[in-house]
Amino acid sequence: MQAVTITLTRHSEPDWLIREALDSLGRQDGAVGEVLFLDQQNDPALAAHCAGLSTDALVFRAVAVPPSGLSEARNRSLEMAAHDIVLFLDSDAVAGPGWAGALAAALAAEEVGVVGGRVVPRWHRPPLILARSPVVLEQYSLVDLGPDTRSCDKVVGANFGLHRSRLGTEARFDTALGRRPGTLLGGEETDLCRRVRALGLDVRYCGAAGVEHQILPERIRFAWLQRRFYYAGISRALQGGRPRPYHGSRAPLRNLWLIPLLPAYALGLMRGWAGKRADG
Questions:
Q1: Closest Cα partner for 257 from 156, 150, 169, 138?
Q2: Is 71 in contact with 178 (CB distance < 8 Å)?
Q3: What is the pTM of this model?
């Protein structure tokens, strides 16, 4: 297995959630390289826990960073990374033992720039009936295209990796997109994948690289989904074009559950367009 840099960024998640994510990285089969834990809370206890997971093959390092947003933290990790294969795990995700190896193997192909993996839910209470819509599930960063490896349009931020040297100056995340304190903005991975394809490189999904995304009770509420769709509208306006959901075109009837959330999305879309006009 090629050496990898694995990055995990903490915003305001509880300690136990971060520990589970870090512990899953300590159980990676055959992984060689480093883990960078970027802590926007600068917690000494978590830094000590992180350092205690180091082995001869995989060195864990905690780095305190300002609470400026996920895209900026990821850009910092790309600058600090010691290896060209850089893998990203959300701080509320738990990686399977073969996760890093599967992503690294998929990124070994010379024509590949970005690879995302399977993300399945670990619900901390029963999901809302609206979660029958695949597009709603995607707002929880869930994706399951099966066990195989295949080309795809985009990846989700809970589970993906990139080959830094192949991407060159495009190995970066747009700081106008992505989570920032007080917002649920997204779209930075979709923007990255668009730029990767413009370089002539492939974006792939790898079903063998699986993680569980922990969905806490406060996110299993209609009010949270409204807010999430509102910011999805803003993110789409900032990117331009039209949405390209993973499963939407294959499940039109199940997406009828989207109807109660469409006003929030439309409101966000209008706000995003208004902001772009004001800036331009």
A1: 138
A2: yes
A3: 0.93
